[in-house]
Amino acid sequence: DAGVTQSPTHLIKTRGQQVTLRCSPKSGHDTVSWYQQALGQGPQFIFQYYEEEERQRGNFPDRFSGHQFPNYSSELNVNALLLGDSALYLCASSFLGGGWNTEAFFGQGTRLTVV
Amino acid sequence: SQQGEEDPQALSIQEGENATMNCSYKTSINNLQWYRQNSGRGLVHLILIRSNEREKHSGRLRVTLDTSKKSSSLLITASRAADTASYFCATVGNTPLVFGKGTRLSVIA
Questions:
Q1: Do residues B18 and B76 lie in contact, with contact meaning Cβ atoms separated by under 8 Å?
Q2: For every one of its 109 residues, what pLDDT tens digit does chain B have, with 9 covering 90 and above?
Q3: How many A×B Cβ pairs under 8 Å?
Q4: How far apart are CA B106 and CA B11, in angstroms?
Q5: In Å, how far is A47's CA from the nearest CA of chain B?
């Protein structure tokens, strides 16, 4: 079992550009959540996808959008990048049928640097 | 926004000692989870405690939950150098995981 995989590992982009990050969930999981973690902070919830729909969203602007594919993998897109978008982006997968009391498995993250 | 606050922000102990980290949160929850993060990489799930549980053990880990005080604690017994990491509590209420800012634990050999 490969667990949760994210790509790329590191990325450098210029202000104003757009970026796409990818996540493949753990086998058997159907739900993908994305988190942004700034240096020295805890992860902050961006949004969650289930059955190819955005199920919940945190306090992030519309520049942050996502997608989930029929195979449960997911993409996070960020448009019009700002310097403040520099962070570690984490993907977590879980099985919604487990209800709220289920653990999430995290990928190793994508380190995005905006210059 | 952050739900909880971990205390202390940083902790340095000798190998073999116990480490205790505390977490406070603000709203009602379904469960509270603790995660570990090494060197800014992915988070590893440690333990989940449900809102109707008061204490839970897993190996060298002991977690307590006091919903009346909206607080939890994580105890790591007989710490090892490999326990050096950041530890986060995360609550699950009506939203997925809401994390605190974490405690940086350094275990000195």
A1: yes
A2: 456 688 899 999 999 999 999 999 998 899 999 999 998 788 999 999 999 999 999 999 999 999 999 999 999 999 999 999 999 999 988 778 889 899 999 999 9
A3: 68
A4: 6
A5: 9
Integer-rounded Cα Rg, in Å, for chain B is 13
- Name the residue among B30, B42, B96 with its Cβ closest to that of A108: B42
Tokens 């603000």, residue?
A: B26
List C-alpha distances in Å: A30 to A58, A65, A74, A79, A100. Answer: 19, 19, 10, 26, 14
Q: How far from B51 is each of A8, A10, A38, A95, B3, CA to CA, in Å?
A: 37, 38, 29, 20, 16
Distance CA B9, CA B104 (A): 6
φ and ψ at residue A72, rounded to 5 degrees? 80, -10
